[in-house]
Amino acid sequence: MILKINFCGDSFCASDHENSWCSILAKKFDASIIGYGKESSAHEHAIKSFTFDANITVFCWTEPHRLYHTTLGINMRSAIRYAEVEPAMKAAVDYYKYIHNKEYAEERQIRDLYWFDNEVLSHYKGKIIHFFSMSQILYEFRNGYTNNIPLNNIFNAGRRPCRPSDNKNFFNHLSRDDNKKLAQLTFKLLQY
């Protein structure tokens, strides 16, 4: 039986490049990858991309202030960048300016993750790792292992290119060496 890994989350697990930590991890397990994260996606993308078909699921939970959209990745930076060419992004700029409430977004993410953990992941038989990509850890999962330091802090990824296309030597905001380190860390954590 071939193991299947599903990466659910944001751009920290979106690259399918052979030097990305996702690909390196799959090789370590001799597994196939059935899903990747999505750049600039909200935490709802990780929830919606989860499947019971995977033997291993790795979540990269994003910060709570992103907006869910079926095709666009919307955060404050992407909304400003594309506001002149994409009507939804222009609307998002207005949302962030006039409506967005930081405390409410954090509370909503905690509620969503609590529900997902207790109502969905509690029925999953595979192994689970939870990483938080770039923000404080607002929720500790009962199901699976929660890494207690955000990836951004471990690898100082905030100083790396925001978009994968900005630099061909970075995958998932990480250098080649950091991709190897994250693959090794994840491999070790999955030994629980």
Structure write-up:
- With 192 residues, the protein is α/β, with parallel strands linked by helices.
- It has a single domain (4-65, 100-189), classed as SGNH hydrolase (Rossmann fold, 3-Layer(aba) Sandwich).
- Helix content is 38%, strand content 15%.
- It contains seven helices and seven strands; from the N terminus they run E-H-E-H-E-H-H-H-E-E-H-E-E-H.
- The protein has helices spanning 21-29, 43-49, 76-82, 87-98, 102-120, 151-155, 176-189, and strands at 4-9, 32-35, 56-61, 127-132, 145-146, 170-171, 174-175.
- It has a five-stranded parallel beta sheet, sandwiched between helices. The chain has a two-stranded antiparallel ribbon with strand order 6-7.
- Helix 3 (76-82) packs across helix 4 (87-98).
- It starts with a strand and ends with a helix.
- The model has no long low-confidence stretch (mean pLDDT 91).
If strands are numbered along the chain, what order do they take across the biggest sheet?
2-1-3-4-5
Q: How much beta, percentage-wise?
A: 5-15%
Number of helices: 7
Could you name the CATH homologous superfamily? SGNH hydrolase
CATH secondary-structure class = Alpha Beta
Query: Strand count, sense and closure of the main sheet?
Result: 5 strands, parallel
Please provide the ordered H/E string of secondary-structure elements.
EHEHEHHHEEHEEH
CATH fold topology: Rossmann fold
CATH architecture label name: 3-Layer(aba) Sandwich
Task: Briefly note the structural class of the backbone.
Answer: alpha/beta
Radius of gyration, whole Å: 16 Å
Give the overall pLDDT as a whole number.
91
Low-pLDDT sequence parts: none
Number of strands: 7
